Model the fold of this input.
Amino acid sequence: MECEETDRPPPPPLALSSHTQRAAAALKFAAAAATASPPSLWGTPPWAGAGVRVARCDDTCPSARDGACRDGRGPPGPVACDVGTDCTDCGPYEATLPAWLAGARPVAALAALGVPLFATRTATDPPFTMPHTDPAADVDVSAQLARERVVERGLTQVWRARLESACGGDRGWSAASPPLPSPPLVLDVGANFGWYSIFAASLGCRVVAWEPVPLFRRFFEAGLLLNPAAAARVMVRPAAACAASGANVTLVVPARGVWGTASVGGANIDPGVDNGRAYDGATAPCEAVDDVVEGLRAAGVRRGGGGALGRVALLKADVEGFEPAALAGAARLLASGDVADVAMEYSPGVYEAGRRWGEVGEWPAMLAALHAHGFTLFHVPDAAARGDMTGGDWGGRLAPLRVISPGLTASHSGWI
Done:
């Protein structure tokens, strides 16, 4: 950790694992640090540019001027309008946005697909506005948001505990506030609707997020438009994090059940859920996390100033069984000691369900590699991930986690 509290010893690096019953295909983790693609400039992150000033006020939304604000900035509920297109009811929309986001109309895009969109003000500290779909269709993320106004409360509390002091927090922050020198970076592999990315950005972190499913990115875009201060800190990459850059992968996306089981090759799709129609598919390019981070860092050094990247405060991988491949593509970064924490889903059941017996060993090999790089491994069971780990106080001390690292004892978790 770069920032540590004086009343306790500095914590060890943290790797979290949460078990699911099934997961998806992965490339060989043992090939992790083999040949790397040359670092390149993989685009310009939003924090390195001036942004685009957007001032939008019109009534082009079909439901405009009906007396109810429906662009996500009003009361929680259905969203029918893109920001600024229900001006009479919601008022003008003014924000400075990354160039790629300035012209986005995610609500109209989702409406064209017949996909419902809702927005809620979260129960987190700090709060933000988060989009989701019909909880009857997506019984996981959307259902949690509709019911509790939070996703995976326990894990989100872990994120806050680990990131708030490291990233500076937004309390008292304004556009005129001087930025932290090279604020820490969060890498969100498998961003889904953007819950963890927007939360981390609201805490002051810079975020690089990978989400290969176009449908999910529409929700992510809607969330960033509703949280423009966070949008200035988030780089969204329309790609899959793989063991190496260059190839393409195909994902299968459900329309019912747990939308988050969208996975490479569809290996984590639950066949017991009636999808109601053919599954959707998406093809995405592969990027190795190492290549992207090294390319962005090289570009930041050339630009100087606010373009530089700080240490990686947290790397998250939740990709439905593709975790061995994603972390294989981050092997150089993990070996460098430049990653404070890793939060990941551990899903060997995917290979078991697919009878991929020759590859099951990739999962313990992945954990062994993390342990060899100095990470202490903790287990967060599903009940804790979705429960309350701070006694109802977002700023409270986290409950201890069970250490699963070989040769370590529970005393190593004393810092939480």
Summary: Confidence is low (pLDDT under 50) at residues 1-12, 17-42, 170-180, 408-416. The radius of gyration is 21 Å. The first strand starts at residue 14 and ends at 19.
